[in-house]
Amino acid sequence: MYVQPLRPLSLAIALIVAAPLPAQTTSEEDDAARLDTVQVTARRRAEGLQDVPMSVSAFDAEQLRELQASDLSGLQGAIPNVNIVQGRASASSINVFIRGVGQPDALQTFDPAVGVYVDDVYLSRIQGALLSLFDVERVEVLRGPQGTLYGRNTAGGALKLITRSPFGEPRLDAELTAGDYGRAEGRFYGAGAIGEAAAFSLAGLYSENDGFVRDPVSGRRFNDNGARALRAKLVLRPTDRLSITLSGDYTRQRNELSLGRAEAPLTQLDLVTGPRVLVPAPTGRFDYRARTELPPDRGQDLDHSGLSATVEWEFADGFTLKSISAFRELDTNFWIDFDATARQITSALVALDQEQWSQELQLLFDDREGLSGVFGLYYLDEKVPSHQEALANDFLALNGAPIPFRRTIDDRLRNRSHAVFGNLSYAFSPEWSLSAGLRYTEDRKRYFRTTSTFSNLPPLVGTFAFEDAANFRALTPSLSLERKLGERRMLYLSANRGFKSGGFNGRANSAAEVSVFKPEYVWTYELGLKTSSEDGRLLANVALFHSDYKDFQARVAEIVNPNAPVPTFAFPVLNAAKLRIQGVEFEGAWLIGEATRLSANLGHQDARYREFRDERFPNADRSGDKVPFSPKWNARLALTHTFALGGGGALTLGGDAVYRDKTWLSVDNREVLTQKAFTLFGLFGVYENAERSLKVQLGVRNLTDEVYKVDAQEFSSVGNIQTAYYGWPRHYYLSLRYSFF
User: Fold this and answer.
1) Which end of the chain has fewer CB atoms at under 10 Å, N or C?
2) CA-CA distance, 205 to 94, in Å (whole number)?
3) 3-state SS class at 12
4) CA dist 416 → 91, 153, 471 (Å)
5) Contacts for 726 with CB less than 8 Å, ≥ 6 apart
6) Which whole-number Å values give the CA distances from 51 to 419, 456, 491, 648, in the listed order?
7) Residues 459, 565: contact at Cβ < 8 Å?
8) 3-class DSSP state for residue 19?
9) Does residue 506 sit in helix, strand or coil?
10) Distance (Å, whole) CA 55 – CA 541
11) How far apart are CA 33 and CA 38, in angstroms?
């Protein structure tokens, strides 16, 4: 068993527990400066971040601005052992891996492995989940399985966005941003009371850029990510014990294609003479130039909207009933050029029209004498009809003449999920607390698919349809033991189970390919220490974890009958692997003097397949292969300093460095789909006037203009497609923010 890196951390925890933290107090002014304590709702109730016995990272609005994060991908590098990037070939999908657990495939028959929540409303698709951070009070990232309190599809963890409450002082903020690559953004937020028992807020976003990938022939630009968004909230508080929040949001995106680079030679299969290379493998660094055969009217359109109603009623002292009702709709019309060349090896349209209704009821109680808990019921009803088209006019040939080929797919997925859950926490002494929980989940899924092919070669013409149904059930317990080591330190030990729901092979094109894959399950064991100095200037959190993962859902590519006159190309989903993932994490912050803050995080993980049953290669042993999107080491170091200016103004300068070790970007560990170790640097400066009503921020990301991959497509059985997608090159911006009141 691999434990060597854990031994130094075990010793470090023992030393931190035994040794006092410094309490640096030099004056009354110096003593008043403290690190902000963020309140989180990771356990469905408000608690201080340092009081939660689990690995949670939280960022308020000011910290998000220092991260220069305009959407969720801006958190990349800010959290140990977490990968958050824009999903492959999509302007609005998110690829999240936490501690080696995630799901990058956007096909609707796959469920995500990390749950994304907006004001406690679950988003069931990774499409549309790359959310803009334009009206956010804070973001919470919960690492490790969250199967008890959050349920299905949180085997890796959960991302929670909490939007601002309109109650409090009236506000009117406006912000304008301009940058290179045609970046132009506008944001506004207004909130105020309506009488004594109601408040309303309205927030808006306009963002646009030209994209950073260009066609060298036509000048057409790709990989933009503009959006228009609105969110309105009405909060009613007729009594001190009753709160009703009504919320609505709408996001509209009209973007160009997201193109990567074909990292391996692309081939055409001639049914007479055999395969030949159409496009050779690239050489040198990616120069952000790419071409496509798709015309300009075939881009990526998204409309994403939702309504929710949250009611909180404290019907007795210490007892609160909470109801969260929500409806969401997601319409996408995405064109994808999988080979990212002017050839048409494979291009596709994916159009979804998803709807989901959800209802959650929670009973929360706290007897104020050590016993607290939450019990709940959850229901989700999701419908996902879709239309798809695949074009492959350059993939097949007959004695040198290309064979036109088109496939159409129309399918429907219906998912109904029910759950009942409960969690109790009991402080049985001033120092010791025990928490235990259990959730039962049942998913009922039904799937219909019909596909037709069109070509001038008769063997390639046909229609196939199937319908299938399956139920998936799971029990996901949790247990944690907490020991307080004084007022500022807490040691905890936890065990949590999570699962990701099973599904259907949404790429089955024949009866032989029809299959139902089972859920994934994970047990994670964690030992953690949270500590802070008495003066609130130093925070240091350490966690050690070990995860046993089974029935990993691997989407692979294969040629079923390579010697037939017309081979069959399949994309099965295998419950192929058992994984062992273990590692350590450190997060720390230090307020030095009154104006300097040093932040650091460090993650180490050993994520590999303990067993991989690959039916394509029965005699191959793939145990020991690496889990994608899980670098062995990752780290971030950030420093900010504020200078007091004459007249009461202030100037804050900051910078950070983010390091990521070598990362595999495909299940098959393709060498061309890896990213070598690299470091990204960022700088920013912020001027504030004396009234703190004006903020001017100038920043740069990827200062050294690093060329690096963030995601990949692997359909190697079709033309040897192995396409990588790249992060933004160096880019600058200037932002002006004004608070009118």
Assistant:
1) N
2) 19
3) helix
4) 28, 14, 10
5) 260, 261, 286, 288, 707, 708, 709, 710
6) 27, 67, 10, 36
7) yes
8) coil
9) coil
10) 9
11) 15
338: left (phi over 0), alpha (psi -120 to 50) or beta: alpha
For CA atoms 25, 27, 30, 32, the dihedral sign is: positive
Residues contacting 619, CB < 8 A, separation 6+ = none
Pairwise CA distance, residues 342 & 738, whole Å? 46
One-letter amino acid for residue 87 of the chain: G
Two structure tokens written together for 676: 């070598």
Long-range CB contacts for residues 690-696, cutoff 8 Å, separation at least 24: 690/647, 690/648, 690/649, 691/648, 692/739, 693/738, 693/739, 693/740, 694/736, 694/737, 694/738, 694/739, 695/735, 695/736, 695/737, 695/738, 696/734, 696/735, 696/736, 696/737
Q: Decide: residue 560, CB within 10 A, 0-12 exposed, 13-18 middle, 19+ buried.
A: middle
pLDDT means over runs of 10, the chain (741 residues): 41 40 41 70 91 94 92 96 93 94 90 96 94 93 96 95 93 96 97 94 97 96 95 96 98 96 95 93 96 95 97 96 98 96 95 97 92 97 97 94 96 97 95 97 97 93 96 97 93 97 93 92 97 91 96 81 74 87 96 94 94 76 88 97 94 97 93 97 97 96 98 91 97 96 89
What domains can you pick out in the chain, each with its CATH number?
6-739 (2.40.170.20)
Scored b (16 or more CB within 10 A) or e, 324-354 reads bebbbebbbbbbbbbbbbebbbbbbbbbbeb
**Element of type H or E holding 29:** helix 28-32
Q: Residue 398 corresponds to which amino acid?
A: L
pLDDT given for residue 563 in this prediction: 72
The identity of residue 306, as a single letter, is G
Residue 395 CA to residue 225 CA, distance in Å, equals 30
Q: Considering only CA atoms, which of 187, 235, 200 is closest in space to residue 739? A: 187
Q: Are 279 and 291 in contact (CB under 8 A)?
A: no
Whole-angstrom distance, CA of residue 265 vs CA of residue 624? 27
The dihedral over CA atoms of 687, 689, 691, 692, expressed in degrees to the nearest 10, equals -10
Nearest to 328 by CA among 359, 360, 301, 355: 355
Both tokens assigned to 225: 């990510």
State how beta strands 227-239 and 274-279 pair. unpaired
Q: Strands 371-391, 405-426: parallel, antiparallel or unpaired by DSSP?
A: antiparallel
Q: Distance (Å, rounded) from C-alpha 228 to C-alpha 208?
A: 9
The CA distance from 640 to 237, in Å, is 40
> Three-class SS of residue 6?
helix
For 451, 563, 608, the CA distances from 724, given in Å and listed in that order, are 28, 30, 22
- Per DSSP, the residues of 619-682 read T---TTPBPTT--SEEEEEEEEEEEE-GGG-EEEEEEEEEEE--EE-STT--GGGEE--EEEEE
Q: Which two tokens stand for residue 216?
A: 């060298």
To 10 degrees, the CA torsion angle through 505, 507, 510, 511? 10
Single-letter amino acid code for the residue at 566: V
**CA dist 4 → 59, 263, 582, 624, 718 (Å):** 32, 36, 11, 17, 42
